[in-house]
Amino acid sequence: MSRLQNLTVSTNHALKSGTFAPDAFRDDLARSGLSDALAAARETLTWRFTAQIEEKHRTEQHISVGEFLVACWTARLMCGEGSGVL
Prior knowledge:
This protein has about 90 residues and is mostly helical. The longest helix is centred in the middle third of the chain and has 44 residues. The protein is built from 3 helices and no strands.
């Protein structure tokens, strides 16, 4: 954990001072031995966020389909088309 903290502190300092060098960061990350662990963490977080977004989208899509059906039914009633049964 201290290796990650050291890498974070030095990167933050370089960013604030305008001296950040991507190649140096890659080298420091490689030397820290954290590349694989951070890549696995990123993959896990990406999977979790994607699943949450898909669930939210599926729920919103279902609601909008229901609202669409109600709007169609209401329009048919207002236009006097049949009994309003879809």
